[in-house]
Specification:
Mean pLDDT: 97
Largest sheet: 6 strands, mixed
Number of helices: 8
CATH topology: Metallo-beta-lactamase, Chain A
Order of helices and strands: EEEHHHEHEHEEEEEHHEH
Cofactor: Zn(2+)
Protein name: N-acyl homoserine lactonase family protein
Radius of gyration: 17 Å
Low-confidence stretches: none
Domain Metallo-beta-lactamase: 35-242
CATH superfamily: Ribonuclease Z/Hydroxyacylglutathione hydrolase-like
GO molecular function: hydrolase activity; metal ion binding
Keywords: Hydrolase, Metal-binding, Zinc
Helix content: 10-25%
Number of domains: 1
């Protein structure tokens, strides 16, 4: 029986970039708006966050903004004050310290930057991801986002965080990318693709993300196909991670899915 009670997708900000960043060798010159999401899972054994968005301090401070975003091929994200995770949690009557476990699908800046608000929590990430994030020339990482002495739990393979919440290896976008299967108490299961699939298009057309580990799409395509097969076998709905149209069809905040 699942331990999941409630599930919220949380919009923490948006950014605009060239579509080819999400769809490899496709969509060049087309600007898209993408959500920056976190997911809150309330269970009978505690609260889990999948991803924590960007570090809003790097956006608020002009010097940090220029330092971290000045050389990126897109503008800094838009993170209104009421979208940031501490504000989202306050709306639900919660505080960051009410989060027991943070699960990081990978360590790119738009998924791990908010970690400083959750230093008290257990932090799960794939061990290959921690290693690859330190490789020379690794792209998409702001190393100081995850340099502090957090309560790291380095993982590998498929495992249950709690009954009804399963971590699934889905490498390719990054070396240690992880997706998550969530069994709701009433509705169909949800399979959070993370950045294994930014858009519905990635899933339907089996298009790898624009950024692939060591510029090789082989593992990314294998992960896409494995996630689709897994969803088919258990009746789960696949959720892409940066598709603004899809997100808007699912957003009920502050109401939840169950």
């Amino acid at each position: 029986m699942t331990a999941v009670r409630k599930f919220w997708p949380l919009l923490t900000g948006t950014y605009t970039y060239d579509k080819s960043i999400s769809t490899r060798n496709r969509g060049m010159g087309i600007a898209i708006e993408a959500p920056i999401l976190a997911y809150l899972i309330e269970t009978t054994q505690g609260r889990i966050l999948y991803d924590v968005g960007c570090d809003y301090r790097k956006i608020d401070d002009p010097a940090l903004r220029a330092r971290y975003y000045g050389d990126l091929p897109f503008p800094p994200p838009d993170m209104p004050a009421d979208h940031r995770l501490p504000a989202r949690l306050r709306t639900l009557g919660l505080d960051p310290r009410d989060i027991d476990l943070v699960f990081l699908g990978h360590l790119h800046f738009d998924h791990v930057g908010g970690l400083h608000d959750f230093a008290h929590a257990d932090i799960h990430v794939h061990e290959a991801e921690r290693l690859a994030a330190g490789e020379p020339g690794a792209r998409g990482y702001f190393p100081d986002d995850f340099a502090a002495d957090y309560r790291w739990h380095l993982q590998r393979g498929e495992y249950d965080l709690t009954p009804g919440v399963t971590a699934i290896e889905s490498p390719g976008h990054t070396a240690g990318h992880m997706s998550m299967l969530i069994e709701l108490p009433r509705g169909a299961p949800i399979l959070l693709c993370g950045d294994a699939a930014d858009l519905i298009e990635n899933l339907e057309d089996e298009i790898a993300p624009g950024l692939c580990y060591r510029d090789d799409e082989t593992a990314a395509l294998a992960s896409l196909r494995a996630l689709k097969s897994r969803a088919c076998s258990c009746g789960a709905h696949l959720w892409p991670n940066h598709d603004i149209g899809f997100f808007r069809t699912q957003d009920r905040f502050p109401q939840w899915l169950d």
